[in-house]
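Hello,

Our lab assistant flagged a job as stuck in the queue for most of the afternoon. It eventually completed. Since we weren't sure the result was trustworthy after the delay, we are filing this so someone can double-check. Below is the sequence as submitted and the structure that was eventually returned. Let us know if re-running is recommended.
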Amino acid sequence: MNIVENIGHGLTFINKECYDLSMLKLLKENPHCDSGMISYFGWRHLWSFDCLVLSVLLSLACDGKKIIKIFKRHAGIKDLPSDEFVGFHLLHQQCHLKDSTIALSLENWFNQQSNAVIQKVRKVDEHDDRSIRLLSCEEWVKHPFPTLWAFISDERCRMHQHGVYLVHKYVLQQSKCFNGHNACQASFENKISILTYQMHKKKVQFNPLQEELSLLRDQLGKEKNENQKLREVNSQLETKIKNIKDSEINEGKLLHVIRKLKYELNKVSQEKESSYVIPTCGHNQNHNCACKMVSDALLVENQESYCSSEKSNDQEVVTLSSNKIQSLALVGGLERMALKYKQIVEEMGISFLYHNGECSGGSTPLKTIVQKSDVVLFITNVNGHGALDIVKKSCKKLNKGFMAINKCGPQTLRQIIENIPTSRAV
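-- returned structure --
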């Protein structure tokens, strides 16, 4: 039995449980078989592989430039091959030598290039045929040489057997491609198997996601129902708030009207009070003209009350002229006009007292001025009416002359003083 028959006989035992015993029996029956048969025991050295495995490995790993580079490094320039085919043949021979430095260098380089795939292959259980096939199909499409080297150099027997299977599969596919039969079918089948495996993985991953999605949909439905209820409650609250705001607006309008009416009523009452003068005019009818001149500055309802000619039964009314007024007090008005007022009053020989009408600090200054004066003039259109009651009550209490005027200039003040009808009860 020659080596080809031995290899064919050994391949019939691939993926069988009795493979190891059959190989031992084969070696005993064929003690002169070449070293290629040793590769079936999974040794990792290049020199232990047969010619077919070495040829496939070298063809996948090395091109013409790489072969020349290897010989330059190890054999020297003199021993360079004439072309890449001769170099491939010489390299193949060097790999069969056990102590060849080229073989050892290639072996280390193969391990470095295939490290990632070797790690994946080492993690797969050798008895899990399905995982082995899927892994080899998936990695073969992306990295043919690292996949082949990872399986063929594995120390485990079943993994090494799968590497030999990949070698023969590759040779068969290349033969079909060379002959022009089904050139792309193998690639498509590999891709289909890879896609089938990936689809299966995605389905396994999709199942829990689908369950989670159904739970989320149920939760979303509950949230929508709660949201609808909250919207209804919100619309009711908005309606209540709108009604409250409308009622507040109506209430605010009513309060505004009430405040306006109170202000107008207070204004009318103050105008009535400001038109009241404590002293009465003399009974001389010749004062009618003077009263008419003064009436433009006085706020009174009935100006004839200042010019009464009647005589009271229980008192005698004595008319006092302006030269008998010793002091005059002016309350209110513009402070910058106080000097002009003072000049006019003092020219008429009357002592002048002035107060701006501000009584926030107390009413004592106002009462003092009223006490020191004979007649008090109160200007109402500049200052507030806060001091009006104080001055009026003080004048009534002390029996002082009092006049409330709306506005007053310097000349108007002179006319008022000259024609003022004052009287004092005797």
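-- support follow-up --
The delay was a queue issue, not a problem with the job. The result is valid. Residues 1-43, 276-323, 422-426 have pLDDT under 50 and may be disordered. Strands lie at 317-320, 327-331, 351-355, 375-379, 401-405, 422-425.
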